[in-house]
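Workshop exercise sheet. Pairs work together: one partner reads the sequence aloud, the other fills in the structure field after running the prediction. Swap roles for the next sheet.
Pair: D.N. / O.F.
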Amino acid sequence: KDIVIPGHTDYWRAFELRRQNLPIERRDLLLTFHGRFAGIAESYGNVTVRSDIMEHLSDLPGVSVGGFIEHYHELMGRSLFCLAPRGITPWTIHLFVAILAGCIPVILSDDLEAPFQEILHWHLFSIKWPMDSVHEL
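Structure field:
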């Protein structure tokens, strides 16, 4: 079995995510994801889950999805759910920044082995959703 090591989140980003983390009653967005996808990064051409996010969720009310934006940390802190789709590999830093932002991570990576499963009960604080069912979110 592989050893899963969580990704590095630098101090400034971790501080900003915690600073922007609003109480649940003040969160006005349902879900958010901003990052690389096939439309803006050629290397993500085969990462269909991210393209599906853009296709199926971009026009929904209370949803903010797209490429990189300057105020992403603020949007995460205003969101109830933060999408954590796989990247070029099953792993994604979006999972860990979602936790720091205080939103519920929605893991969209069928092959992801979450770290520390023996200690952390991931099903209690995250949702693992099938990658081919983005249209049902």
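Discussion prompt: The radius of gyration is 14 Å. What would you look at next?
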